[in-house]
Amino acid sequence: MTKEARGHAGFFVATAAALLLGGCMSLPQTEALRATPPTGLPPRVELERVPFFQQDDFLCGPATLAMVLTAAGKPSSVESLTPLVYLPGRHGSLQAEMMGATRRAGLVAYPLAPHMEALMRELAAGRPAIVLLNLSFRLAPVWHYAVVVGYDQDIGKFIVRSGRKPRDEWSYAFLEFLWKDSGYWALLALPPGELPATAREAEFAAAVAALEQAGGRREARESYRALLGRWPQNLIGLFGLGNVEYTLGDLAAAESAFRRATAAHPQSGPAWNNLAHVLAQRGRLAEAEAAARKAIELGGPTLAEANKTLESILARRPGGAATSR
Amino acid sequence: MIGLPFQVHAGLIGTDQVVTAEQALAAREMVNSVVSRAEVASQLQALGLSPESARDRVAALTDSEVAKLAGQIQSMPAGADGTGPVLLILIGVLIWWLVKK
Description:
The structure holds 2 protein chains of 2 kinds.
Chain A: H1 3-20, H2 28-35, E1 44-46, H3 60-71, H4 78-85, E2 86-87, E3 92-94, H5 95-104, E4 108-111, H6 116-124, E5 129-134, E6 143-152, E7 157-162, E8 165-171, H7 172-179, E9 186-190, H8 201-213, H9 217-230, H10 235-247, H11 251-264, H12 269-281, H13 285-298, H14 303-316
Antiparallel strand pairs in A: 1-6, 2-3, 4-9, 5-6, 5-9, 6-7, 7-8
Chain B: H1 15-22, H2 27-31, H3 33-46, H4 51-59, H5 63-69, E1 78-79, H6 86-100
């Protein structure tokens, strides 16, 4: 190649590279970590007990889930998880389904705050995380899940299990480069009753409710109690606890939870409605009626449900059906 | 009202509705919960799942997750490839080759 041609080629390559890499060469989290190392963390952590499951093509979803679920106390395998999370027509696994499969194993699927520091704090607390990575360009992504099992602040690296490698070390910069395009998405699988080290109230409450909704009622009960231990007034915690106690047959506990909910959130129509329902079940029809009327007064999207609750209470009260509304 | 499939006990409002309200999500998501779940289940079936499997997998998702998936399953990220940063390496090799010439 002539010098001139080489110059042109070099310029072309540099431009192409810059365009292809989509300008995502800024790595703000790495810079922040280097500028201000996190306080109160051990210098290095490695969760050696997290097992490695090798993935075959396309099965990084089941493989990473198997690692993290097994580490959380629910022994799993790639074979057992593939039917829960792998989507043949997409040759891969969707993030929401990774969370759904975690719930089906009786664990809380908690979306981590999108920061490397949060990741480090959870690792220090003994929890591995599944991260979603783009191995290619933003315009033509190749998505991949890996499990982060440790870090080393002295050398500035994370320790990961990825693909066919049970142990790889990635610099902060390399992890961030791969992790950025997913919005720094990371997933924790928590045993019942446990709070993440970096728990955020709203996200954790929603995660426990999601476990309840997926059918993990006993497990959700434990996690609601943990949520309320830390945030005693949380509406989703009090309301959800009431619902699971009811479903599990403890009406006294359900009533107690709904009472706490209405005391802390007197404007919550659903809380009054469900309190009314439980009181009626317990035969305390006068109190039930009062609570149901309160729910109706508050209106909102669940008004129709509240009306039905009142109707069913009035139908049971001796001579009560004629009472004006 | 809105019949939620997981509202096992008539009269009790499900927790997911309160979550939806707390997150101030669009009313559309609450109202169309049943429809969206059936929609997403059939979209999953079209992507290779049995009807039972599709239903079970949708049942493990929140209303909000279902609403986000509906009609978007083809474009949402699906983690798959574990064979290493293949394309990055290929591009690196290409650049190296061009510069070496």
